[in-house]
């Protein structure tokens, strides 16, 4: 049993699709996005948090903001799992600690976290 009908999901998606912001390079992103602070911090909530992110994406909230400092990287990993099959439909914003800024550090840290 669903708490919301397919018709209601479609209505919400249509509203979100109409509200876009144009970036300087011409890219349009949803005006309403999802923040991920506190996500991934409690392993027992992970599946529920993944389902929630995916539902919000269904609603057209395809702008996701996360950072390596959120849950010490756990939020980033949770987002990765949630969007793994639909990455090309998501506008993802990632933030890094200042000491990890710069191309060399960003790519080195990303490599270290995945290997």
TrEMBL record:
Name of the protein this chain belongs to: Aldo/keto reductase
Taxonomic source organism: Clostridium lapidicellarium
Pfam family, one: Aldo_ket_red
Lineage of origin: Bacteria, Bacillati, Bacillota, Clostridia, Eubacteriales
Domain NADP-dependent oxidoreductase: 32-102
